[in-house]
Design brief:
The protein is of the alpha+beta class. It contains 8 helices and 25 strands. It folds into 2 domains: 221 residues, Alpha-Beta Complex (Cathepsin B, Chain A), CATH 3.90.70; 174 residues, Sandwich (Jelly Rolls), CATH 2.60.120. The protein starts with a helix and ends in a 5-residue tail after the last helix.
Length: 490
């Protein structure tokens, strides 16, 4: 009798696991983002103020501040030859121009040559609502890079290019100069930003800018109010002894108003500016272009929302992909919504939607602990080939410390993003247990796409079904991949 009671209790708990984990929901949108979206087309808005939006949702940052190492009183990337020329933005779009400037700086820091990347292509070919071309953010840049749309060279899509809206002039079939998949959204404390400028290069950061607070006598800027951010400066150094209206100490920043503005295109922003360094970004890595590279994804517009369960820092996501060509599966890409997010990946061949049972484990990514929030790619523990027509199911576990919306999602936001939401390919779960998966998508009450991408290479070798042929084919395919890896497309 006791065993029967325990069994019934177990079944009751199992079938009602969502209640144990609390109600599932999206994280509310950032109030500053909503305010900016509503006011961005105000008729009295100064032209100098257009160009950028706050991030759509607030991320999870730890409360402790990093220790302050012994930084020099003055540091300036301009003296180190790792900054591109000052850009001149056109009718807004500072978010895109500053993104490409940051990437160009990062490439120089990594020992690559100076590239003139197409600001225009990112500004007009981002895939969001057309009005976002003149008012965007670094999350839009991340989506553009993660789906391998760019960066293109300036020569591939030069200014003015497709400057009319709606834009129908985006070039088709142009190969990126290289791949940039990862992005980071660091906190804005002084120690973190100074260390990143020294280690990474130029750092993208939103600010509230209006000419009324710019002192052209000494090229300094200070604002102490609460107006939402609307512009981008790239942080390229600091001067602890620079005097501004906000006190002593300033960040050295590169603007996108051309070389005749400020100090040859640069400005000193007070350490005490109230609206600077709240929203930051950088793009840490690159990979050489490879014509055989492929990405499987549903979130064409990337991540700008997150889903979670009240009282829980953990969530599970499951996405189905059916291959349209032979691929050699190499990496998983997804987003960390908070600092020190733990991400664990399992890839399966089969999923029974009726029972929620996964089977046929193909590969894994053992638990990874991230740094700053952002987009991360992880190598599979075992890379493997798949044939056209075959299906894989990617299960991801997210744990976000002190943050109750761990799962990154894409969905409709009026005047910001209108993605094509898929059906019958995405599931959410608070526990990851069999029978605890909820279908989401266009035909459900929760019309979201999951932000889980798979990267691989086109594989001309079709893998036969018998074991001996599989072994021979896999060896041949590995030789092919090794040979391809020695080819540089830069």
């Amino acid at each position: 009798m006791k065993n029967i009671v325990l069994f019934c209790l177990f079944v009751t708990i199992f079938l009602n696991s969502n209640r144990l984990y609390g109600q599932g929901s999206l994280k509310p949108l950032n109030p500053d983002f909503l305010s900016a979206i509503q006011s961005v087309n105000d008729s009295d808005k100064n032209a100098d103020e257009t160009g950028a939006l706050p991030y759509p949702i607030q991320l999870g940052y730890s409360e402790h501040q990093p220790s302050n190492p012994d930084f020099p009183a003055y540091f300036d990337l301009r003296t180190m030859g790792v900054l591109p020329p000052v850009k001149s933005q056109s009718s807004g779009g500072c978010w895109a121009y500053s993104t490409m400037s940051t990437v160009e700086s990062r490439m120089l820091v990594l020992g690559q040559p100076l590239y003139n990347l197409s600001d225009n292509n990112l500004k007009y070919c981002h895939g969001f609502f057309d009005s976002r071309s003149t008012n965007g953010n670094a999350w839009m840049s991340t989506a553009y890079f993660a789906r391998q749309s760019g960066p293109l060279l300036e020569a591939q899509d030069p200014y003015p290019g497709g400057t009319t809206l709606p834009n129908t002039d985006c070039p088709v079939g142009e190969a990126p100069a290289f791949f940039i998949r990862d992005s980071r959204y660091p906190p804005g404390d002084m120690a973190t930003i100074k260390q990143l400028v020294m280690d990474v290069g130029s750092i993208w950061s939103l600010i509230y800018y209006t000419p009324a607070y710019f002192n052209d006598a000494n090229d300094t800027y200070y604002y102490g109010g609460t107006h939402p951010v609307n512009h981008v400066f790239n942080v390229v150094g600091w001067d602890d002894n620079k005097v501004t209206a906000g006190g002593t100490g300033a960040w050295i920043c590169q603007n996108t108003y051309g070389p005749t503005w400020g100090e040859a295109g640069f400005v000193y922003v007070s350490y005490n500016d109230s609206q600077f360094l709240i929203y930051n970004a950088y793009f840490p890595t690159f990979d050489y272009y490879n014509d055989d590279s492929r990405v499987l994804l549903y979130d064409e517009l990337g991540n700008y929302g997150s889903y979670g369960w009240t009282g829980s820092e953990t969530g599970y996501a499951l996405v189905k992909y059916q291959l349209s060509e032979n691929l050699f599966m190499e990496q998983i890409g997804t987003y960390a919504m908070a600092e020190a997010t733990q991400i664990e990946v399992e890839i399966y061949r089969n999923f029974d939607a009726g029972t929620g049972q996964l089977s046929g484990l193909l590969s894994t990514v053992s638990t990874q602990t991230t740094g700053h929030p952002g987009y991360y790619t992880f190598d599979l523990n075992t890379q493997f080939p798949m044939n056209a027509g075959e299906v894989i199911y990617v299960k991801v576990k997210y744990t976000t410390p002190s943050y109750e919306w761990p799962v990154p999602v894409e969905y409709f936001i009026d005047t910001y993003a209108d993605p094509a939401i898929e059906s019958n390919v995405c599931w959410l779960s608070p526990s990851g247990a069999s029978g605890d998966w909820t279908l989401i998508g266009a035909t459900t009450a929760e019309p979201y796409d999951l932000c889980i991408n798979v990267y691989g290479q086109y594989n001309p070798v079709t893998i036969p079904l018998n074991n001996i042929s599989i072994i021979i084919s896999v060896l041949a395919m590995l030789v092919f991949v090794l040979l391809k890896s020695k080819i540089r497309y830069f």
